[in-house]
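Check the record.
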Amino acid sequence: MTNNFNDIMIIGGGPAGLTAALYVRRAGYGVTLFEGEIPGGKLNLTTDIDNYPGAPKTEGAPLALAMHTQAEESGAEIVYEKIESVTLSDADGHKTITTENGEYMCRALIIASGSENRKLGIPGEDKLSGRGVSYCATCGGGFFLDKTVAVCGGGDTALEDAQYLARMCEKVYIIHRRDKFRGSAANVERTKRLRNVEFVLESTPVEITGGVNIIDADVVEGIRVKNNKTGDITLLAVSGVFIAIGYTPVTTFLPVGTLELAHDGSIITDTEMRTSVPGVFAAGDVRNTPLRQIVTATSDGAVAAASAVKYLDENI
C-alpha cells in the first residue's frame, strides 16, 4: 500500500532519482519515488554505453533495470503516477505532491525529473534514434571512429560537439540554418581551424535517411539538407547525426516563480544540490549543470540524498 506521507519524496526515476532513493534508504529514512513511465528515464533509450565506470559495453535498459531493482530492494517505495502539481512549502514546512490519483506529503523533496532533448522534428529522426541519431556527442562519439558525421545546431554545444567529434571522426559537418552562430566567437574560430570540419550554413535538415546493416538493423546513412536561399536539397552521406539544438528541463509541474531557475529553465542549485527553497533539492539533468551524463546524474542523486538527510536531521 502506498504511503501518503513519507520523510523524503523524489520526483523522477532516472539515474539521479534512483540513486537518491538508494542513499536515502541507506541513511534509514523512508522514501517514495514517483515515476510517470518506466524507471531509468532516457537511459532506456540508450542502446550502447561505454563510458560508465565499471560497466563497459553495456546497454541502457539493463543498467536502468539494475538501478531500479537495487533501489527497490533497499526499501524505496516506487509509485507509477504522473505528477500534476507540487506545493513546495506549507505552514509546517511540508511539501505536497499532487498526482492523477491523489495527494502525497513529505518533509523534504528531491526533484530529479530530467530534461527532454529538443528535436528537429524531421522524418527519420525518431526511427533512427539510438541507431546513429544521438543527442550527446560525449556519450556516443566513440562509436563513430574514422567515420563521417553531422552536427545540427548553431550554439556553443554544437560547436563543442563538433570539436570533440573531430578528434575521432574522419569528417564532421556542422549544419546551421543561419550564416552566423549563436556560440561564442572564440568557439567559432576554434572550430574553423579544424581541418576535418566543414560548415553547411544557411541550411536546414529535412530528413535523416537510413538503411539496413549486416545484422538487419536500421542505421543512419545520410542526412538531407535544404539550402535556405536556393531551395536546393543535398544528401550528405554520414553514419551519425548529432542533434545539438538544446534541451527542455521537465519542470511544468512546478508553481511559477517558486524556484530560482536559469535562463534555460533548469533549476539552480548549489554544490549540495540545494535549491532556493529550504528542504527542496534538485539532481540530474533538470538542474543547471555543465554536463549531462549518467555518471554525473548518479553523483547528483547521492549528494542530493545526503543533503536531504542532513536537512531532516537538523529540522526534526
